[in-house]
Amino acid sequence: MEKTYSIKTKRLIIRPLNETDYEMWKDAYISMLPPQNKWDQANSKPTSLKKSDFKKILTANKKNRKNESNVDYAIIDRKSKKYIGRVGFMSFIRSITQSAFLGYSLFNNHWGKGYAEEAVGAAIEIAFTKHKLHRVQAGIEADNKRSLRLAKKLKMRREGVAKNVVKLRGEWRDLVQFALTCEDRR
């Protein structure tokens, strides 16, 4: 059974995309600025902004939510009703650890407004209360200063560096590992 959750914060709505979101989704990609840094590629424009391709994304998202391989949430500005980014969890482990990895990205025309902290904090709340996770993990490249600051603001614990752990932009990269458990949030 597919589980979908949503949460509202002061300025944002965090929820899965649905079929009525096509125009909002398309407008977000049309209005974004050119990539601003090497991490900005996560939001690179899809090869097609056709409604049929959007429906394929929704189908894939639904399948991924059902089997918890990748649970993706849209970040929507409550006031403007704009799609401004996404936050989600991947690599769920449901055995003895009850954990998942956190990922997020904001469209670059919405950077510097505090949305990431608000959205990721809300998503972590969903992870612990709705997905019943015990641990949320994040891996961040050492020179990604904004994401390192965000992890610290969210009171995530730095646990070390994993060497050559993920292939990004065609190369194996080290990631600074952060984690947060449900006990840390209490």
Description of the molecule:
- With 186 residues, the protein is an alpha+beta fold.
- The chain has a single domain, classed as Gcn5-related N-acetyltransferase (GNAT) (Aminopeptidase, 3-Layer(aba) Sandwich), CATH 3.40.630.30.
- The chain is 30% helix and 33% strand.
- The chain is built from 5 helices and 8 strands; from the N terminus they run ββααβββαβαββα.
- Strands 1-2-3-4-5-6-8-7 form an 8-stranded mixed β-sheet, with helices on both faces.
- It starts with 6 loop residues before the first strand and ends with a helix.
- The model has no long low-confidence stretch (mean pLDDT 92).
Rg measurement, Å: 16 Å
How far apart are the first and last residues' alpha carbons, in Å? 29 Å
Q: Classify the helix fraction into a percent range.
A: 25-40%
CATH C-level class: Alpha Beta
Strand order of the largest sheet: 1-2-3-4-5-6-8-7
List the helices and strands and how they pair.
Elements: E1 7-8, E2 12-15, H1 22-31, H2 51-67, E3 70-77, E4 83-93, E5 99-106, H3 115-129, E6 135-140, H4 145-153, E7 157-168, E8 171-181, H5 182-185
